[in-house]
Amino acid sequence: MKLLVAALASELQAFPAELPGFDRLVTGPGKLMAAVGLTRALDAHLTDQYEEIVVVGTAGAVSDDVESGIYDVAAAIQHDVQDLDGVLGQHVSLPTRVETGRVGVTIATGDIFVDDADATARIRSLGGVLVDMETFALVWVAQQFGVPIRVLRVVSDRAQDGATQVWDEVVAACSAQLWAHVQREYDV
Predict the structure, then answer these.
(1) Residues 185, 155, 125, 53: is their CA dihedral positive or negative?
(2) CA-based Rg of the chain, rounded to a whole angstrom?
């Protein structure tokens, strides 16, 4: 059994309510809600552990080199933390980077919806090409439980001025793209 995860129900609106071979989890937005939601789900399945976690959802593009489309995430960093020396992207106790074990892009996770040029420049300087609010936490939790994780993010916006409004308008189309991709990848 696999676990299909999204932050918001709207990101799964194109998916059927029941998907053979998958349980479904909607965590809520942000790192804390993602970490708590996934931890609870994995803790409830300690004896019959999931074979894979499949995360789907939207992300903002912070690099001009990133086209619209769906991306596998190889690694996640945090753009909204700093260590005791004030180094941006370094947490005082968590790793700087978590990896999924897949080939793909680096996503920067933070508890803010990025929609301005200054923030995207800071995220690019850390090595991120996409930005979201959950991936780092989800990958870190999956690693703590030893469950493989795959993160599929579809570009919903350019993470610039007006991105919040754009996201509201495109989330349904993004969900449909993700559902088509999951159907092809998992033969469902």
Answers:
(1) negative
(2) 16
Give residue 55's identity as a one-letter amino acid code. V
| Structural contact between residues 75 and 99, judged by C-beta atoms closer than 8 angstroms | yes
57 phi and psi angles, rounded to 5 deg: 165, -175
* Average pLDDT value for the chain: 90
Q: Is 178 in contact with 11 (CB distance < 8 Å)? A: yes
pTM above 0.70, yes or no: yes
Q: In angstroms, rounded to a whole number, what is the distance separating the alpha carbons of residues 82 and 101?
A: 25
Q: What is the DSSP letter of 66?
A: P
Residue that the structure tokens 């937005």 belong to? 29
Fill in the amino acid letter for 117: A
* Dihedral pair phi/psi, residue 61, rounded to 5°: -90, 130
Residue 5's DSSP bridge partners are 25, 55
The beta-strand segments (E) located in 37-148 are: 52-61, 70-78, 97-99, 105-109, 130-132
Helices (H) and strands (E) in the chain, counts: 4, 8
The reported pLDDT for the residue numbered 17 is: 95
What distance in Å separates the CA atoms of residue 34 and residue 46, rounded to the nearest whole number? 18
